[in-house]
Amino acid sequence: MAFVVIIPARYASTRLPAKPLADIAGKPMIQHVYERAKLSAASRVAIATDDSRIADAAASFGAEVVMTAATHESGSDRLNEAASKLGLAPETIIVNVQGDEPLIPPTIIDQVAGNLAAHPDYGMATLSCPLDGAAQLFEPSVVKVVADKTGRALYFSRASIPYSRKHFPATPSDLTPWQRHIGIYAYRVRFLQQFVSWAPAPIEQLESLEQLRALWNGAAIHVEPAREVPPAGVDTPEDLARLRELLR
Q1: Domains detected in the chain
Q2: pTM over 0.85
């Protein structure tokens, strides 16, 4: 199985400006992400950015860089432009690795690519893991996912799904029925082209979850529990401080 990793990286960030260039243990964050992706089985790893400062940093450590437009409203749009500029064939599998995941396990990059390759009727593949504590059950920033017995996603939500009629509003002692969504995706290029052509779906806009556009349009998303749970990414200055201390 051959696949390509593309790492979208934006300079602008509301909570943490210049995040991809933040120093962690002597390296910019984007270099950590790139090096983790290179440890996967990917045949090619590229960084897609709209900012020359990120491009220059990536070139300094030998990464392949794709310059994309600054007007993209979503990561999928940037990914699609990068795939086009890289000249990837329609059946090529792309894994979208977020640029703020400096400790992402290479194992799960391979896993999500392999899952999509094994399910040719699915448009996308992604991963999940158990909740890390009861507080996440009611935390809107933690996206929950429900899938059927075959691994086909039924819904993603910031709400506490499935709803426990017996336990809610109290927190149940057993969190086994709930799965947290891990934001790593695999696509085939032909599906990605179709995906970005669709208008944003009403449920996507309500939840602010782009993957709901696929479900709204009848596409299947494969979900499987991750073989290795990734550490939390970097969204805030507090996250950055925690990671710096961890890798110090």
Answers
A1: 3-247 (3.90.550.10)
A2: yes
